[in-house]
Amino acid sequence: MSTIHWPENHTHQSARWHSENGTPLPQRTIVADDRMKANDAYRHACEGTALLWQGDFHNARQLLQAMGRRIDRKPPRSNTSPSEPFHLHRRSSSHRARVLGKLLVLLDDDYTLALRRAPDVRQACLEAYGPSKGPMAVSLRELLGVIGAHQWRLQGVEVPALGTRIHPHYGVFAPARGEYVDLVARAPLPPAALHSPDTSTAFDLGTGTGVLAAVLARRGINRVVATDISPRALTCAKDNAHRLALTDRIEVSGPGLFPEGSADLVVCNPPWLPARPTSPIERGVYDPDSTMLHGFLTGLSAHLRPGGEGWLILSDLAEHLGLRTRQQLLDAIQAAHLRVVDKIDTKPRHPRSKDATDPLHTARSAETTTLWRLTA
């Protein structure tokens, strides 16, 4: 357990240090309040000094935004390769997280945030962190993420394919991009599942919120086994199955990738970009060395019933960013002794695909998401 220390009123104070993305304990921490100027805060943060905020909550948010604007003033570097915009974007994002993560707040024993005009964050923190273990220092940026996740959990995300909402938990990737859900909702079910509906089984690997497991259950699959490596995702999937009254058809299993046994249909929507995540929520987007993708492909044949199919839902964004080639994907499919029966394409509908100011706009505007139907 890490402990953060800071001087205050000629005494030494301390509290537990917590960072969801594994940010190391600050080497130096000073107290800051409404008198702190943005330039000074930015300078301290760039030098590695953390600022423990004791002023007004809304002023802290404004200071965080002002520090972000100073980071954005840096001119972009020239591109030297197809993947250079992506790597520059990731380095910039990492620098932003490192600097903005130096503005801290202190949560009391019961997760009370004792700042002027501060919201009640106790329930949001309890959902994200579990029972309190005493006063805890966290970055304001992380706390704002916890508050936002609590609102998403309360309101849910509308899923047209289900005709209802899915409620994501903190640290679990939300199904905000609906095109991959629509692909699973409209792809033809394999003959093995259609011929024996009363005994049909599907696996949903990396289930996250459980949205694809719910779609498959609603499509008539008798038994859906949903897996994930994240305990938070497993809890979230169970919660959504209960909300949708599908606990008799959806079994949540894990942590792990493949469950035991075989199925008529195995669905996998792995992280689309082969890169290292820098926070728990990024594990839904970034997968170092495409570990989950290769794990799905190599293990698929052993878990398919005769006549069964594996559905791989994958964006080609990595190809447009120069991180993976189409031939590398096809070679991996062939190496796993799999055959492509068909593929169904769709274009993204999210706002970033049309945002010309996005540093990755060229790649995003050309992106296609594909459902690959594979057999052994």
UniProtKB/TrEMBL annotation:
Residues 12-25, 365-376 have a biased composition (Polar residues). This is Class I SAM-dependent methyltransferase. Residues 193-314 form the Methyltransferase small domain. Residues 1-25, 69-92, 344-376 are annotated as: Disordered. GO terms for molecular function: methyltransferase activity. It comes from the Bacteria. One of its GO terms (biological process) is methylation. Keywords: Methyltransferase, Transferase. The keyword Nucleotidyltransferase does not apply. Pfam families: MTS. Residues 344-358 have a biased composition (Basic and acidic residues). It comes from Streptomyces bluensis.
